Amino acid sequence: MDKYIFDEINGLWYELQEDYYIPCLILSEEETQPIGLWGQHHKQYLKEHRHIVYTTMLIEGTLNRYLADINQQAEQMFHRLIEEMAQKQGVTEQLKAKQPMEWIGLMNNIQACAREIVNNEIIFS
Length: 125
Description:
The protein folds into 2 domains: 1-32, no CATH class; 33-123, no CATH class. It is built from 5 helices and 3 strands; from the N terminus they run E-E-E-H-H-H-H-H. It has helices at residues 36-49, 51-60, 63-88, 93-98, 100-123; strands at 4-7, 12-17, 20-23. The chain is elongated, with a radius of gyration of 23 Å. The N and C termini lie far apart (53 Å).
């Protein structure tokens, strides 16, 4: 038996593994793109609340590219919001040096607010 065979009907190559021919499938670059934490949250949202959209994008092969884009947008928005909120609330490096515990508390609150905004504006919409 040949190690590899080509099926002209479906255009796939098959590899012999033990007694069975298994199709040799290769994912495209778009499908192997990392989607990150925000993208995974949005993926879970799509699975649970927008199942038809999720399934359609999965079948068309556009899901990972879309999720990677969502992840990038969410990351940029998150960092921009943190910088803006910290500046408005006067959370500076001087505060970090003088009162580190207060700085940590303020930054944790800012990050929680930014995370909530990103979730509402991008991830769960």
